[in-house]
Structure prediction request, 139 residues.
Amino acid sequence: MSLCGVSYAATPAFDLKAQLDEPGVRLVVVDFYSDYCEPCRDAAGDWERIRKTYASRGLKLVVINVDSTGERSQCTLLPWKPDEIVCSPRTAIEFGVCEDVDQCKVPQVFIWSWQGNLIARPQGRDYVDKAEAAIVDYL
Prediction:
């Protein structure tokens, strides 16, 4: 499947189309996270604030943990509460975030509108600020 030029195979762990089709969802933010990523860990408070601030306006925050390989119950506990946590290095590979399970470029965020348009893909140390700006612009 391809949405806005980003190809991925729907997996039992993550199905972007299903996320976008949920009632009331206007934006899906997919944050690729790793326990070894200091900026990922440092962003926890900001992500929680963003999730709480914009959830009522249709924002859904999904975190894909690139370190975990098991079911959701085996994901590393995160220092904030996203709407959904997915343990799936495979999904990170499919999105081009990882070359393989040991070589990932995080943090990275993808933001999709409910229509399936990729509206932003912030990366780097200020990725949360860029993500929030894209969220505000869209909503």
About this structure: DSSP finds five helices and nine strands in the chain. The mean pLDDT is 82.
